[in-house]
Amino acid sequence: MTAKIYLEGGGDSKDLHILCRQGFRQLMESAGFSGKMPRLVSCGGRDAVYEDFKTAHQQNSTDYIAMLIDSEDPVDDLERTWDHLGKRDHWEQPDGSDDQQVLFMATCMETWILSDRVTLRQHYGHDLQESALSPLENLEQRNRHEVQENLKHATRNCSNAYQKGKRSFEVLGKLDPATLETHLEAFRRMKRILNEKMQ
After folding, report:
1. pTM, two decimal places
2. How far apart are CA 63 and CA 65, in angstroms?
3. Which domain of life is it from (predicted)?
C-alpha cells in the first residue's frame, strides 16, 4: 500500500521543510518503517496541513492519506480525532475520511521530545537541567505551553539550546521509539495504525 503523511512543521522555509521531513523520517525508520516508509510532506502550519490533506483526500491519489499534527490541547479520546479538531479548530471532517487519517502529537512535538530523557541527556550534555523538564506522568495531558517553555528552560545553558526549527528536528530524529511508546499513547496509536496500513 502507498501512503502519504502531511506533517505539521517547517514554517515557510524550504530548508526547514527538508529538515522537518528528515527528522520525522529518521524517527519512523527507527520505529521500524524503513522498508515501508510513507511519503512525508512538510506543510508548515497546521492550517496548511489541513488544506493540503483535504486536497489530497479529494484527489485520492494514494491508498492511505493522513496528517500528523499537534493536538494543541489534551485529547479526550484519541480514537475520535475529528471530534477534537471540530471542537478545537472548527475543522470539518472531509467526506469519506476517517479518524485513522489524523495522527496526533499530543499535545505537541515537544511532548515527544521531552519524553525521551536518555536522548535529551545525550544530545544536550551536562548543561541540561533535567529537573526543569515537565514530569513524565500524564505527559500528554499537560499544557503545550508548559511543555515547550520547560524544554527551553531546561536547555537554556546548552550551546545548542532548544528552539523550534532546525534544532527541534535534529533532536526529533534521534528519539528512541521504544521510549516514546512507553510514555505516549498517541505515539503507540500512530505506530499501530501505520503498521496496519503499511502491510
Report:
1. 0.95
2. 7
3. Archaea
